[in-house]
Amino acid sequence: xxxxxxxxxxxxxxxxxxxxxxxxxxxxxxxxxxxxxxxxxxxxxxxxxxxxxxxxxxxxxxxxxxxx
Amino acid sequence: xxxxxxxxxxxxxxxxxxxxxxxxxxxxxxxxxxxxxxxxxxxxxxxxxxxxxxxxxxxxxxxxxxxxxxxxxxxxxxxxxxxxxxxxxxxxxxxxxxxxxxxxxxxxxxxxxxxxxxxxxxxxxxxxxxxxxxxxxxxxxxxxxxxxxxxxxxxxxxxxxxxxxxxxxxxxxxxxxxxxxxxxxxxxxxxxxxxxxxxxxxxxxxxxxxxxxxxxxxxxxxxxxxxxxxxxxxxxxxxxxxxxxxxxxxxxxxxxxxxxxxxx
Lengths: 68, 264
Prior knowledge:
The complex is a heterodimer.
Chain A: H1 2-15, H2 17-24, H3 29-42, H4 49-64
Chain B: E1 11-19, E2 22-29, H1 40-48, H2 51-55, E3 59-61, H3 63-71, E4 80-83, H4 89-101, E5 107-111, H5 114-123, H6 143-148, H7 151-168, E6 174-178, H8 184-188, H9 190-194, H10 200-210, E7 212-213, E8 216-220, H11 225-230, H12 234-263
Parallel strand pairs in B: 4-5, 5-6
Antiparallel strand pairs in B: 1-2, 2-3, 7-8
Helix pairs in contact in B: 4-7, 5-7, 5-12, 7-12
């Protein structure tokens, strides 16, 4: 369930410029993950710290795979 | 989810990808940043260092690009520049795509003594010069071939394909430029060709930029022709003479003939 919640939260953020601005303020990866988990919960989307970390790694990997 | 194109005003296309036979665009937030880095990838990479920009990205069907163009028309391109170095199939596909998408837009093909390009590529390979990284059929090869042949031959074949495509698409909207003509050609031939008129301060800025290394503007530009020539091995020379040199000579002949035609 919580991966679906993370996907749902991604859609919420992409429609909401103020949420994006708040999340963009945080360049530190760990602090960003904490904030994402907290803001997700406030929007009714429940997911874990590890799930966000995994999603970040998957995003990075997908970009690298373009070249190999 | 459908994306309202107004949400994309500070975003730039990051890559195109296929999903279930449909093309999609992956977007990257760039905010107010201007695209002034030597490479587009550098601007995008800087933006993606922010974890928010990495995790939260719009992904839209390719048709969104057309909707965006209707909602916020962008400047039409003044011209395209293609070149032989560090541009494999991207070059060819972009060349063809630009011809189809932007008929009538002038384009330049910039090339260089092929053995020098080969030395450079063999020392530090562009992603497109790595065997198998790009669909080999684009270069008229198959997957088994590219892993079997010597690296010099692979690089020479890719380079030959690029030069061949440039020759095949030569018309009145194309200008051939040899590396040797740089940097003077940038302010002598290009403004007229692209139909732009530069004021003296702009020209001075260009002259200043030409004294810097384009890929690393913190360093001064150094002509590396002699140094590259020293790096030409027998294998490079053989592959080059056999596969690329004839096309390079055709490009040179076409460039000279065109210059004479223009001055006649």
